[in-house]
Amino acid sequence: xxxxxxxxxxxxxxxxxxxxxxxxxxxxxxxxxxxxxxxxxxxxxxxxxxxxxxxxxxxxxxxxxxxxxxxxxxxxxxxxxxx
Length: 83
Prior knowledge:
This protein is mainly α. It has three helices and no strands.
């Protein structure tokens, strides 16, 4: 959803969206931890190679994508005094 769609939601729908995003952020944290483990194992077993860069790219995308979506939602919740 983009910001325009978030602003059209009712208060209850907005709170449900916040719960969904919270669980998604927990899942992202688990995936980032797993990928970091893959990187550490890859470096310990072999050395720094091309296959080590692939998890780094996915970690970057997970961090970058979740940061902007949650910022918009937090601003809207603060604006409506819901949280």
